[in-house]
TrEMBL record:
Coiled-coil intervals, chain numbering: none
Keywords: Signal
InterPro entries recorded: FG-GAP, Integrin_alpha_N
The species this protein was found in: Crocosphaera watsonii WH 0003
Name the record gives this protein: VCBS protein
Length: 193
């Protein structure tokens, strides 16, 4: 969990119970980096280097930060996750206009089937993605050219609020690539990767 001053982890005991919460990292918190509102500067977990352990990623005001999981339940110090060769900080509040997780949600999922979670952002008229390179960097963000994908945006499909019309990324056809599933006002929609 993300506390005011620390990130806490409770490791699973494997029997449905968890160990005592331990402070493992002081990044990604309200008092250490200004990570105040999850709706504006969201933090997520996903496996970005393909080692089978979930890491932490945060979409801040000016940059995207990532912290890799260690085998002992702790995390490496946060580092800026370069997006693209020029070190772009797209998917942030001040670079790309990602001002609201409710209107313009960002998500993490493996969309190319390489075992590493990638970044996906639902913009005004397009869906953008950046593929994980496995080392804390990502490819340059591009428009997702998936049949029907743009229908999951505000401009093209009226998906105005994630809270009301949620969109999820998960593999629904068993090909190891995350697909888009969206819950509209009258139907559930899908776009396959």
């Amino acid at each position: 969990g993300f506390g005011a001053d620390s990130v806490f982890v409770s490791l699973s005991n494997g029997d449905g119970s968890f160990g005592e919460a331990q402070s493992v990292l002081d990044s990604f918190t309200v008092n250490n980096g200004g990570w105040g509102d999850q709706g504006e500067v969201p933090r997520m977990v996903g496996d970005f280097n393909g080692d089978g352990r979930d890491d932490i990623i945060g979409f801040g005001f000016n940059d995207v930060q990532i912290s890799f999981s260690n085998a002992d339940g702790t995390f490496s110090e946060a580092q800026v996750a370069d997006i693209g060769a020029e070190g772009s900080s797209n998917f942030t509040v001040n670079s790309g206009g990602w001002t609201s997780q409710d209107q313009y949600p960002r998500a993490v999922a493996d969309i190319d089937g390489d075992g590493r979670d990638d970044i996906i952002g639902f913009g005004q008229d397009s869906i953008f993605y950046a593929l994980s390179e496995g080392d804390g960097s990502f490819t340059e963000s591009e428009i997702l050219n998936l049949e029907g994908a743009s229908n999951f945006t505000i401009g093209a499909g009226g998906w105005t609020r994630q809270g009301q019309f949620p969109r999820f990324l998960d593999d629904i056809n068993g090909d190891d690539k995350a697909d888009i599933v969206g819950f509209g006002s009258e139907s559930v929609f899908a776009a396959l990767a």
